[in-house]
Design goal:
With 214 residues, the chain is of the alpha/beta class. 55% of the residues lie in helices and 13% in strands. A five-stranded parallel beta sheet has the order 2-1-3-4-5, with helices on both faces. Strand 4, helix 8 and strand 5 form a beta-alpha-beta unit. The longest helix has 22 residues.
């Protein structure tokens, strides 16, 4: 089967077509890992490029991410029993949450969907997340922590969380990415984050970059 059908369905944001084409590929004995690595992940990479070139905006990214999610849902039963991808390496683990006091989740959820499309295993910690939850995520194996804030009043809780990671003795075991409308690189540097992402596409690039440095 030509996996371009899967690729195009995701880029075009067609949930139904993505599910059908992924299932068709599985029925034709295409390995789940091949569908993931040669169609779903490249499709979300293409969506990220379209976004950066301002050909796509947040609504288009969301529908493409939802289409990708539908494809992943169809693949997951097969992915759990088939061998891991090239080299048998485990997928990187990232944990994302909106910091204590902040209930916004649209940006966080979009980043999570994009990272899942890029092959990450994601732990969604939700909103109003206290530092202890982020610490637990690191202790459970998260290699990247994502802190989101949409309010200037909750931005200081990012620094509180990073300091809590230090006090718990786990800061050197994890890379911390921060993001949200009121943030910028200067603030990320000020609070001791490892990276800043202005949008979901940038978050995927930054996460990959930070992992390559470990």
């Amino acid at each position: 089967m030509d996996l371009k059908k899967v690729f195009d369905a995701v880029v075009n944001g067609s949930v139904d077509e993505t599910k059908v084409s992924v299932q068709q590929a599985l029925d034709e004995q295409v390995p789940a890992e091949t569908i993931l690595n040669e169609a779903l992940i490249p499709a979300m990479t293409e969506v990220g490029c379209l976004f950066e070139n301002q050909d796509y905006y947040v609504p288009e990214m969301l529908v493409s991410a939802k289409a990708m999610q539908s494809g992943l849902k169809t693949l997951k039963p097969r992915l759990t029993v088939e061998p891991a991808g090239s080299g048998g390496s485990a997928k990187p683990i990232a944990a994302f949450g909106t910091v204590k006091g902040d209930l916004h989740d649209i940006g966080k959820d979009l980043v999570i969907m994009m990272l899942e499309g890029a092959g990450f295993t994601i732990k969604d910690l939700g909103v109003d997340v206290p530092p202890e939850k982020f610490i637990e995520a690191v202790e459970d194996g998260a290699q990247i922590i994502g802190l989101s804030a949409m309010l200037t009043t909750t931005m200081p809780n990012m620094k509180v969380t990073i300091e809590a990671l230090k006090e718990a003795g786990v800061r050197d075991r994890v890379r911390v990415i921060v993001g949200g409308a009121p943030l910028n690189q200067t603030y990320a540097d000020h609070i001791g984050a490892d990276g800043y992402a202005k949008d979901a596409s940038a978050a995927v690039r930054k996460a990959k970059e930070l992992l390559s440095q470990t």
